[in-house]
Design brief:
The protein is mainly beta and about 850 residues long. Helix content is about 15%, strand content about 35%. Bound molecules: beta-D-galactopyranose.
Length: about 850
């Protein structure tokens, strides 16, 4: 008999069977998806409003985090039940007329957009109270087992009841947490989970989403078992011949008597997420004796011969399978995925992975997935990372909160390093109801929980304790920073602790000494001075650029003044424009090239996100970015002026890639720098300017070459060479005439790459392309279909905004439409959409268990329509 782990993503069920030697077939641990078939309703039942407000229930909920605090901070849960008087929490409540849905779910993304809602959080209704209920049967065969509910993330202030009894809760909406259901389960009967979320308004600087927006799991174990996040792998010695692997495992004993158990671990190679072959390393067995109700830990050691190293090019992974035995019977097993690699931040040279210098070519991203909102979807995230990798991204910063666990799994598999961030605020808030209200009670629990959850991921190279924290400037902040750093160090000493500092003084006032590696936000001219003052602190650019642009928009005359380039609530795409604290990409590149000890940068942002539509809003950030009172006052005035206008913007302009996932021009200035070995050239703007005949229409070129020659209708407009600290080639005096622009790029004197931009004919047809022609019929998998407004030759027609209608037949559904226009209030769930500058995106999901052909048709008045077939298997 073979040991097997059934593993499929998202809707997954994980069953671990005992290994062969133990002649036993029963699953020893189950992890079952609890995403299907929930009932949902907004608001509290009439008459119960406020009864369950956090202030009233806090003492019950805070005790949930006891596992993550020292004994002094543990809370005793008050006696009695809570919520008995609230009907929705009760076991017998009849929820049959509630809306039925599957998780992950984000109630905010369903809209509608409203002008009066804050643009800073996307003009969508994500706040308020929501209830989820789910019925499930616990088999009487499972009597004696432990039952846990694992919630990867619920926005926010979750409180959970089982069969009318309060189980516990967790307020931070970005945290993952586990609740022990065992005391409340009824075996052989219908069990009812009720979850109340209470998402405070005015609690975020971006769109947070609302609802149980990540995956939920039911975990069943025997009473003696590996604890929650109970394995921790480190690789203290890595050589070509062998790597030492330490696995610390903690066992919980939930039985009524003391117990002894033997733990051991075997290591397998992983290929595409599956274990392959026989185990390649073994630990010795170790016996642990655990008192009733207690936990004990031990460290198992192993050696992996000729280790396959985890790197960006070859992200090799291993799985450690830890088993727990009693009387030669396996009673629990846990699989831990890990990688073998070394990291180092060097004072003079920056970041090293496996002894090789790797520049952090990073982006910051928020968690929303555009039209899909905050609801996590494996494929949507994977697609984002594919697009980022095409640009040359080597690093992602999870701004400004712990990410979905799937993001880390994907980065492990796809070869991306990660800066895993905890908080956007400590004791000083940025918004009336943000994390500062939770900080004192929860920061230790949230931070320990995050590190314990994430510390086995080889992708993680930095723990960030905060972004642009209000306390950077004072002694209180330095004390807090040191406390947070020490918490992280207690949980993991294998990666440095950092923070993103926007306050220039934080590099000199002592804050810089509280972290292991210092991160500056938006300070490309300051790296040299920082190094002089701090010769022993490694440095990187934790947040850079914040350039703004709208895909396919260009305004004239082109100005190099970064505050210009705005019209119609859009921003010109010449990539010269940025808010006052921010910079065009070129300025940041120069800073990094002048001071190459800086380990690299994290650009704000990879993808556009919902909310924070700076320069047309995003108010709290705008003010926060100024420490100088005069500048703050000036900005406050600008914000006031803006408030008088009905700004329609609901999503950001910062993205290198727009909200629908379409590349802006900026994509290519980063690709040119980050993938110097890739022959490429990119011309901007488009060449459809009938109203500009004879007028100056500058042409800029991004190329990985070092020289280029531009031709207009076959005439050379000159060959230009990049000077030191030049990252684009500019022909600023080109007079427009229709026809063809062609650029020929050179590298080291040799022809290297070409790009062509042609004036197009009028729109005549639609074309469609799916990012994947076949998807899995699992109710989760997606295909992203790009619809283009094309002329008769198939060229994208710039500035076209035609309305497109969609029809779908077969076993799929349209789950989102978007066009990347930051000012669009059209519903993401619609079956029609205006194109924005020639493009529109349709997201199609396969129905679970229904294979077949999904036919998608697109039509637009006056244009030839298009149709494609997507396979679902
Ligand atoms: C930064 C902040 C980010 C975002 C950005 C916009 O200061 O850390 O969250 O607001 O500004 O430029």
């Amino acid at each position: 008999m073979k040991k097997r782990i059934f593993h499929c993503l998202l809707t997954a069920t994980f069953l671990i069977l005992a290994p062969a030697a133990f002649a036993q077939r029963a699953p020893v641990r189950e992890r079952l998806s609890m995403n299907a078939d929930w009932r949902f309703k907004r608001d509290d039942p009439p008459g119960s409003e406020g009864v369950l407000s956090y202030e009233r229930i806090k003492d019950w909920v805070t005790a949930t985090g006891n596992e993550f605090t020292g004994s002094k901070s543990k809370r005793v849960r008050p006696a009695g039940n809570l919520g008995e008087q609230v009907s929705y929490a009760q076991r017998t409540f009849d929820d049959r007329d509630w809306r039925q849905l599957n998780l992950p779910h984000d109630w905010g993304i369903e809209g509608p957009f409203k002008q009066e809602y804050p643009g800073e959080t996307g003009k969508l209704p994500w706040w308020g109270v929501g209830w989820y209920r789910k019925h499930f049967t616990a088999s009487s065969k499972d009597k004696g087992k432990q039952f846990y509910l694992d919630i990867d993330g619920a926005m926010a202030y979750a409180t959970v009841w089982l069969n009318g009894k309060l189980v516990g809760g967790w307020p931070y909406g970005y945290a993952s947490f586990e609740l022990d259901l065992t005391p409340y389960i009824d075996f052989g009967a219908d069990n009812v989970l009720a979850i109340r979320l209470d998402n405070p308004p005015d609690s975020s600087r971006w769109y947070p989403g609302g609802g149980i927006y990540r995956n939920v799991w039911l975990v069943k174990t025997s009473p003696v078992h590996v604890g929650h996040w109970g394995t921790y792998v480190t690789t203290p010695e890595v050589g070509q011949a062998a790597a030492k692997v330490n696995l610390k495992v903690s066992l919980d004993n939930n039985s009524a008597t003391s117990a002894s158990a033997v733990v051991r671990t075997q290591v397998y190679e992983l290929l595409n997420g599956q274990k392959t072959g026989k185990p390649i390393a073994f630990s010795d067995p170790t016996t642990l004796t655990i008192a009733a109700g207690a936990s004990e830990a031990t460290t198992l050691t192993m050696s992996v011969n000729k280790p396959k190293i985890w790197s960006l090019q070859k992200p090799n992974l291993y799985a450690a399978v830890t088993t727990v035995e009693q009387n030669r019977r396996i009673i629990d097993a846990q699989e831990t995925v890990f990688g073998i690699r070394t990291i180092k931040f060097d004072i003079d040279k920056g970041f090293f992975l496996n002894g090789e210098h790797v520049r952090l070519n990073g982006v910051c991203d928020h968690h929303d997935l555009g039209a899909l909102g905050a609801a996590i979807n494996w494929r949507a995230l994977e697609r984002q990372i594919e697009i980022l990798k095409e640009m040359g991204v080597s690093a992602i910063r999870t701004s400004h909160n712990p990410p979905a666990p799937e993001l880390l799994d994907l980065c492990d598999r796809m070869g991306i390093v990660v800066m895993d961030e905890a908080f956007d605020a400590w004791r000083r808030g940025k918004k009336k109801n943000d994390y500062h209200l939770l900080f004192d009670d929860w920061h230790e629990k949230d931070l320990r929980a995050q590190v314990r959850r994430d510390r086995n991921h080889p992708s993680i190279i930095l723990w960030s304790i905060g972004n642009e924290i209000g306390e950077q400037g004072n002694a209180e902040g330095h004390k807090l920073a040191a406390e947070l750093r020490d918490i992280v160090h207690e949980e993991d000493l294998t990666r440095p602790v950092t923070a993103g500092a926007n306050n220039l003084n934080a590099g000199y006032n002592g804050f810089q000494k509280t972290v292991d590696v210092f991160g500056y936000n938006y300070k490309p001219t300051e790296y040299g001075k920082f190094r002089q003052a701090n010769p022993t602190i490694p440095l990187f650019a934790s947040e850079t650029s914040s350039a703004v642009s709208s895909r396919g928009e260009y305004y004239f005359p082109v100005s190099d003044d970064k505050s210009q380039g705005r019209a119609d609530f859009q921003v010109s795409s010449y990539d010269l424009y940025a808010p006052r604290w921010a910079w065009p990409p070129d300025v940041e590149f120069k800073g990094l090239d002048e001071f190459p000890f800086t380990a690299g940068e994290f650009v704000w942002t990879g993808f556009d996100y919902l909310g924070e539509p700076t320069p047309y809003g995003g108010d709290s950030t705008t003010l926060l970015n100024f420490t100088n009172p005069a500048e703050q006052a000036r900005m406050a005035q600008e914000i006031k002026e803006l408030a008088k206008i009905r700004v329609p913007s609901r999503s950001s302009y910062f993205g290198i890639i727009d909200l629908a996932g379409f590349k802006k021009d900026r994509f290519y200035i980063y690709q040119a720098r980050w993938r110097p070995e890739l022959p490429m050239a990119h011309i901007l703007p488009h060449w459809n300017w009938p109203e500009r005949a004879g007028q100056v229409t500058p042409v800029h070129v991004y190329t990985s070459g070092d020289e280029a020659e531009l031709f207009l209708n076959g005439r050379s407009l000159g060959r230009k060479k990049k000077e030191q600290y030049q990252y684009r080639l500019r022909w600023d005096d080109v007079k427009y005439e229709p026809g063809e622009l062609r650029v020929v790029a050179y590298k080291n004197g040799k022809q290297w790459a070409e790009d062509v931009m042609k004036t197009t004919g009028p729109a005549s047809k639609l074309t469609m392309k799916a990012d994947r022609p076949t998807i899995r019929a699992d109710g989760q998998d997606l295909t992203f279909v790009t619809v283009t407004i094309a002329d008769k030759n198939g060229l994208l027609v710039p500035r076209s905004k035609n309305r497109i209608r969609f029809e779908l037949a077969g076993p799929g559904e349209i789950v989102g439409v978007d066009n990347g226009d930051a000012t669009s209030f059209e519903s993401f769930q619609s079956k029609a959409r205006n194109a924005y500058n020639g493009l529109c995106m349709v997201i199609v999901r396969a129905k679970a268990g229904q294979a077949g052909a999904i036919k998608l048709k697109a039509q637009s008045d006056g244009l030839a329509g298009a149709e494609i077939v997507i396979g679902s298997k």
